[in-house]
Amino acid sequence: MKTLRIWFTRMRVMTSKELMQLLRDTVLIIFTIYAFTLDIYWAGSGVSLSLNNAALMVFDGDSSHASRELTSRFREPYFQNVGSLSHSRDTNDVLDEGQAMVTLDIPEGFEKSLLRGEQSTVQMQVDTTNTVLGLLASSYGQQIVGRYGLEVAMKQQGLSPDGSISGPILDDRHRVWFNPNQEDSWFMSIAELLTIITVFSMMLPAAAMVREKERGTIEQLLVSPLSGFQVMFSKVLAMTLVIVLLTSISLFLVIGGLFGVPFKGNPWLFLALATLYVFTTSGLGLVIATFSRNMAQAGMLIILLIAPMIFLSGAWTPPEAMPTVMRWLMLVSPLHYFIDAGYGVLLKGATLSVLAPQLAGMCILGGLNFALGLWRFRRQFA
Amino acid sequence: MASDDDKSEATESGSLAVSARGFSKHYGKQTAVNRVDLDIRKGEIYGLIGPDGSGKSSFMKAVAGVLSFEEGTLQVFDTVVDSEASAELIKQRIGFMPQGLGLNMYPDLSVEENIDFFARLRLVPDQSLTERKSRLLAMTRLEAFRDRPMKNLSGGMKQKLGLVCTLIHEPELIILDEPTTGVDPVSRRDFWSILARLLREQGITALVSTAYMDEATRFQRAALMYQGKVLAEGEPDVIGNLAQGTMITIDVEDQTKALALLSEQFEQIEAVGSRLRVWVDEPDEAAAEIQLRNALGGFVVHHVECDTPGLEDVFVAKLRQEGHVVAELPAFEAGTSSASGVAIEAHELSKCFDDFTAVDKISFTVPQGEIFGLLGANGAGKTTAIKMLTGIQLPTSGEGQVAGANMSTAAQLIKQRIGYMSQAFSLYLDLSVSENIKLFAGVYGLDPSMRRERSPWIIELAGLQGYEKDLAGSLPMGLRQRLALGCALVHKPQILFLDEPTSGVDPLGRRRFWEILFNLARVQNVTILVTTHYMSEAEHCDHLALMYAGKVVADDTPDNMKSAVTAEAGGLLEVSVDNPINAVGVLEESDYKGAALFGRKIHLWAPDDESSRNRIQSLLAEAGIAVLGIRSRSLSMEDVFVYRVLQQEKAREQSAA
């Protein structure tokens, strides 16, 4: 009974020590608060994966009713007509110079050939330096041109005098689930939150540990009756507490409040999962701390690990699109499980029973990380 | 008067290397150096002596032209340093070695690469570089280590390499900021003799600072600094006259009670091993002794020894006379530690790292309540030995009992019974004083009532009343160390391990620290195992073990160690001559290898008899040097240490050959 009481006293004083130290590190605490609030706000409101106001320049060699009609169909919010060109050869130049992202070249005689019922061509050139946006621009352009062509054809056949289509055509009625307006801010803000949680749950415990090594206070703890587990776990506990607190602020104020993401599932379930995830990842932070002599080294190791963790998480690429080897590697990225679970709860309303595999994955990885950290810690100081 | 001064300055100005008038330096509101006047003559070793934070470094940096200052004038050679441009003019004539072991060099570069780097920085032509490099490496005996990376050198060797790098462009003035701090006594002596030889052979000027008061005798002239002011300036003897008095060492029955009685009359008193050292404000030795005997009344006095006080004693006396009051220590409960018998027993302990043996079969026994000192150079294995005894590291072989528990099997039990304080300040700088105490009370599992009882005692012990809410990082070094000591004592340990606890602490702080240790051992019966670099502190221990290359090479009381060395090597003779710098060279080249320069005097090992006196006389007479006097000196612990370590080194070289 007494041993148990002393054990809890030790954990309590060590955990509150870590909290006090963190709160007094002004630079770190400001950086942390920034990351969980402003950074997520900017990621959600600034980064967009949809085509908005792509700069379009047109060479209209025909100057006819038909050419003007086609041009006018490239309209906002997707495209923005930023000017017209007087020569067909200029189209390449404006792309090179970055004045336009898309150019449309309508040759002379465009309308005539349409009226004659002949095949007619327009040329669209797209700058696909940014592959996502380029792909979107070219497919939207295809749709616009294709649809116009179809309308003209049907009108000529007399099938539809007003231009609306009423022929043997498939009517595509798709439904968008989970994010009906396809708002990027929903996806982006949650993705950024998950990344930030990952970064800080590695960085904060690693920083706390490396600081003890740098200043030599670790020796004082080693000669005390504290066990290695108590030294390490008190850091994890303190940092988990801070990160989960900030996560809930970010979740309710920024993601729910500012971006209006409706939580389909129980946000408390999300926080519980986040707690488990922070624990999983902070073990990794402690392993890093045992390998590094100072904060700079720890920081570099964390960056080194974060990049592949995010690539392998499935945040940017669905697992099915990855090579087989990568798909296997994904199994060891804790972020992979957390992303599935996080989106699942927040946007899809998933419950605990659905998330059992993810939960198991995180538990196993977390246990392994922490055991590895403890083993390294003992080995380093014995 | 004024005109006299002017005249003397005018005649001297050509012979001065550095001249400062009303020099002041402020950092924000803090005054680092306060209206200092100093003259350093060409061709002398000039010392700045003083504890940390006394303004030595700021002054040296200004002389080196790397720090601006607000008030006063500073002239280096013929240049008045008042702007960056003027500072640039003198930099080629100056060599500056900043504080810190090897901090200005590159750890991953080899000895030779470091030297080459500094030479190229100073545009030394290749041919002179080759010649100077081989000469300096030979002088510093670093020749064999040319290709060794700097980080693998010992502390003393790093400092010698630093000196070579500072000298490679042949400066006229070298500025060395605490070159001997953190360096063991043997390497320190080596460093001083190399410096003396450089002066003799090259005629350069050296401005050197030190925190070791006993090194004052190494300088031709020196300034004693404290809190930014010069307390005294001149030849070491002159500085020694700062406060008048006699130092008396007595061997008296019932040391603890005698100490309590004498403390009422004599403020400056300390326990040294089984003896008491008392400062009496009376320069006449006979009169001082009578004063002391009267004060002692009925106590049986076994032995009395009067001595002229050392600089550290004088310094403390001066501060005391100026009214620096030291707070009273709290009461020590008698016999807190009930344990008796053997506190620490090490039996053939060894620790190997890969192919390197850090500790090689050491054995020693420490009875409960004793102050046990572990001495040794950097890398002798002291810290590793402590780490094994405290359970941080497992021994490769051998075994030990600490506080009644087996080291290898019951490490957890030991940890509960011992207190530990390490070399570096090992508390949390970003926690306040009371938060630190609370933390360690919790770590050692004290219940709240016990904690409330211990906290005020620790605060009082460390003299931290009024600082409870201050962050530990904002405290001066001396207070921090005592706080660390207090935290190590929070759970009333049976044994206290202290790894170089007083490095960087000023003499006043060190005295209080030892006063606490004495009370812990004598009144509370706590066993104390301490390692130290300050040989003057080794005298405070009841028992000493000297380590060399991982082995214990001597294990005895300080007195026995001294008499053993006297029996083997004869005594220590102090030779006064009219040309000490040349004389030491003459003596070194004859059979007196260990001859060393202390200010204007020479110390050497020789039996105190007619034949050795005659031999010294005739050797020096041949060289045309007049001997002013030869007298024997009582050995200090440092003499013993240096003698034993050199003996080991010689034996090692012979076995290698």
Give a written overview of the molecule.
The complex is a heterodimer of chains A (382) and B (657). Chain A has 382 residues and is α/β, with parallel strands linked by helices. Helices cover 66% and strands 6% of the residues of chain A. Chain A has two domains: 2-47 and 182-381, no CATH class; 54-156, abc type-2 transporter like fold (3-Layer(aba) Sandwich). Chain A has helices spanning 2-24, 26-36, 38-46, 65-73, 90-97, 110-116, 131-156, 184-215, 217-222, 228-258, 267-291, 295-311, 324-330, 334-348, 356-380; strands at residues 54-60, 79-85, 102-106, 123-126. A four-stranded mixed β-sheet of chain A has the order 2-1-3-4, sandwiched between helices. The radius of gyration of chain A is 29 Å and the shape is elongated. By secondary structure, chain B is of the alpha/beta class. Helix content of chain B is 38%, strand content 26%. Chain B has 22 helices and 28 strands. In chain B, helix 14 (433-443) runs parallel beside helix 16 and helix 16 (477-488) runs parallel beside helix 17. The chains are: A alpha/beta (382), B alpha/beta (657). Chains A and B meet through helix 1 and helix 9 of A and helix 13 and helix 14 of B.
List the helices and strands and how they pair.
The complex is a heterodimer of chains A (382) and B (657).
Chain A: H1 2-24, H2 26-36, H3 38-46, E1 54-60, H4 65-73, E2 79-85, H5 90-97, E3 102-106, H6 110-116, E4 123-126, H7 131-156, H8 184-215, H9 217-222, H10 228-258, H11 267-291, H12 295-311, H13 324-330, H14 334-348, H15 356-380
Helix pairs in contact in A: 1-10, 3-8, 8-10, 8-11, 8-12, 8-14, 10-11, 11-12, 11-14, 11-15, 14-15
Chain B: H1 2-12, E1 16-27, E2 30-41, E3 45-49, H2 56-63, E4 71-76, E5 79-80, H3 84-91, E6 94-97, H4 111-121, H5 126-139, H6 155-167, E7 173-176, H7 185-202, E8 205-210, E9 221-226, E10 229-234, H8 236-240, E11 246-252, H9 255-265, E12 269-272, E13 275-280, H10 285-296, E14 301-307, H11 311-321, E15 342-353, E16 356-367, E17 371-376, H12 382-389, E18 397-402, E19 405-406, H13 411-417, E20 418-421, H14 433-443, H15 448-462, H16 477-488, E21 495-499, H17 507-522, E22 527-531, H18 535-538, E23 543-548, E24 551-556, H19 558-569, E25 571-577, H20 580-589, E26 596-598, E27 601-606, H21 610-622, E28 627-633, H22 637-656
